[in-house]
Amino acid sequence: MNRSQQAKFNTLYGKHVSALKRQGKAEKTIEAYSLAIRRLSKHFDSSLQNITQDQLEIYFDALIRSHSWSTVKCDRNGLQFFFEHVLKRPWNWVNLLKPPQVRSLPDILTLKEIERLINATRELRYQTFILVAFGMALRISEVLNLQIGDIDKERKRVHVRQGKGRKDRFVTLPQRSLEAMRRYWKTHKNSQWIFPNGRTAEERRDASTCMDRSGVQKAFKAIAQSCGIHKRVTPHTLRHCYGALMLEAGVSLRAIQAQMGHECPRTTALYTQLTEATEQDTDQRLNSMLDSLQLTWGV
Hints:
Blueprint: H1 3-22, H2 27-44, H3 53-66, H4 69-87, H5 111-120, H6 124-136, H7 140-144, E1 151-152, E2 157-160, E3 169-172, H8 175-185, H9 201-206, H10 213-226, H11 237-248, H12 253-260, H13 265-268, H14 282-291
Antiparallel strand pairs: 1-2, 2-3
Helix pairs in contact: 1-2, 1-4, 2-4, 5-6, 6-8, 6-11
């Protein structure tokens, strides 16, 4: 692009970001939709003001060959937003791009495998993370963003703030998860975070941010490999394990749905394909399940 075209692109890009913020989009959505605009502009070396349908079809033909369908869908949504809210042009061909319908089931760990995961690392922060993520069915960001004020030890509840879809919810706090968080917090005593950033106790004590997400993901992968688990697992797998094992323990789908923060019951119903269940009390079953783990804690 020449200087004039670059200036025009910068103006349109700024309007795109501004419109996304006015729509109340999450930060991750803003970044993903903005990346779609930058990627398209780079592909054609154009300001995008006069982008044509033929060009878009050529672009998506190339994108499908070089990126995952997840990226393709995200770019499609981002560009549709750009067309409708910035260029003020109709988006008439959205149905020409239809990602294939893939219905895959997640790998599930047994209680013994989760026990092996926790015992395979001597780092207390990762042991605590695994037990908390599994024991309360939390997403990785929900665990890392836990703060001291979110823990209600009297009511045995945790206030999960701004989860998926920017929604708050309360989840059951198992006694064993509470004890684990207490044990870890005493090693750093940060005034805000349960899982503060930092390599040393001193750095964690003074940290103003939580533990790094990518660091946890890499550590989890290494821990799984070190204890001989060859299933395709990530920290998010712990949520699936919770759903499947709690259903197997007899907890109702409705109770699991509330704990996991699923908006649609069909999402929770996935676990009926992984296990069998009967009706039982959530709190009792959850604590019983965690109490059965034979753990050796680090320092």
